Amino acid sequence: MQQQNRKIRHVRNEKLQTIKPGYRGNKIIDGLFANGDELYLPAFSNVLKWKLSPNPQRDEKKADMFVPEVHLGSDFLSSTDDMVVWLGHASFLIRLNGVTFLTDPVLYDLPLLKRRVGLPCPPEHLCGIDFLLLSHGHRDHMDTKSIRAIFNQNPSIKALTPLGSGDVLRGIERRLPYQEAGWFQQYDLAPAGIEVYFMPASHWHRRSAFDMNKMLWGSFVIKTASTLLYFAGDTGYGSHFDEIQELFGAMDICIMPVGAYKPTFLMQRSHLNPHEAVKAYNLLRGGAFIPMHYGTFDLSDEPAGEPVRLLEQIASAGMLQGLQIPSIGQPVLLSELVN
C-alpha cells in the first residue's frame, strides 16, 4: 500500500506534558503504532527461517552452563537506601527519593518458557512498591500472574504504562489504576521531588493473533534532583538514544538490555547486542551501566554467558566505563554510584 493511501494520525495523552518541542505524538498508520515514523511488522517468514536453520553456536550454547548468581534474602525491601536491585530478566526494584518502582515484573515461569534462575526471595515478599513501570506488552515483560501477585501484595500501587495498554491491563487486574503516556511525555505523579518520563524504543507489540502493534512500547527516564536513571526496556539500536541525551543530558545510571540478539536477521530491530548497548550507553554519556535481559530465560541463539563475557571484554578494552554486573537480589546502592 502506498504511503499516500494510508490513514495516518498522531496520538498522545492530552492530559500529560510533552517535553519534546513540536512533537505531535506517536504516529499511527492504518490503526497500528509505528516504530517511530515507519511501521515495523516482524515477518513470520523470519521466525520460520530461524526455526528451520541450524544454530552455528549450537554446541557452544549447549556447553555454556552460565546462570546469573542469586543473592538470597529480602533485606533490600526494608532498607530506606536509594538502590537498584535486579530480579532477573528486565525486572528491577528501583528506589529513589523514598519512592519504590518495579519494572516489567516476570517473577514466575512463563508458558512454555521456564526461568533458568530463581528470585532472591519469594514473590510474596515484594511489598512496599509504589509504581509499576511497564515498558511494553510482550509476555516476558508484562506477565499476568506477576502483575496480579504484585497488586495483591501492594493494593495502593499504580501502573505507568504505554498508550494502548488499558484493555490489556483491565484484563489482567481491573482494579489496578494506570496512567498511559506516549513517547516524550511526563507522567503526572503525586510524589514531590521525582519525575518519570516515557521515552522511545525500537520495538513492536503482540500478545495475541489480532493485536499486532495495538499497544505502544518504550523506555523510562526517572529523574530526581541528583539522579537521572534510564531504563531502556526492549529496544533495537536507533536515533532515539541521541534524542534522549539531547533532552536530558548525561545519565547517571543506564539499565541496558544486552541479550536475545541472535540470529541477527530476526533480532536486530528489536534487541541490542552488547556492542550496540555500549554504543547507546556512550551516546547517553552514561555513568553506571547495569545489564539486563540475559541469563534468566532462553530466548535466542547466543550462549547464555556470551553477553557478560562480551561486556567484560569491552570494559577491559576501555570502551565501557562504569560496568556493574550485580547478582540477582544484590542491591546496587546509588550512594556508591552517583557523585
Quick structural overview:
The chain is built from nine helices and 17 strands.
CATH class: Alpha Beta
What does the overall shape look like? globular
State the share of residues found in helices, binned by percent.
10-25%
Number of helices: 9
The low-confidence runs, each spanning 5 or more residues with pLDDT under 50, are: none
Largest sheet descriptor: 7 strands, mixed
Average pLDDT: 95
What share of residues are in beta strands?
15-25%
Total number of β-strand segments? 17
Protein name: Metallo-beta-lactamase domain-containing protein
InterPro entries: Metallo-B-lactamas, RibonucZ/Hydroxyglut_hydro
Domain Metallo-beta-lactamase: 101-294
Keyphrases for this structure?
Metallo-beta-lactamase, Chain A; 9 helices; Metallo-beta-lactamase domain-containing protein; about 20% helix; about 20% strand; Metallo-B-lactamas; seven-stranded mixed β-sheet; alpha/beta; about 350 residues; RibonucZ/Hydroxyglut_hydro
Report on this structure.
The chain is an alpha/beta fold and 339 residues long. The protein has one domain (69-336): Metallo-beta-lactamase, Chain A (4-Layer Sandwich). It contains nine helices and 17 strands. It has helices at 44-52, 58-63, 75-78, 144-153, 166-172, 240-248, 264-267, 274-283, 306-316; strands spanning 8-11, 17-18, 26-29, 32-33, 83-86, 92-96, 99-103, 131-133, 158-162, 178-181, 185-186, 195-199, 219-223, 228-231, 253-257, 288-292, 332-333. The strands form three sheets. It has a seven-stranded mixed β-sheet with strand order 2-11-12-13-14-15-16, with helices on one face. Strands 10-9-8-7-6-5-17 form a seven-stranded mixed β-sheet, with no helix packed on it.
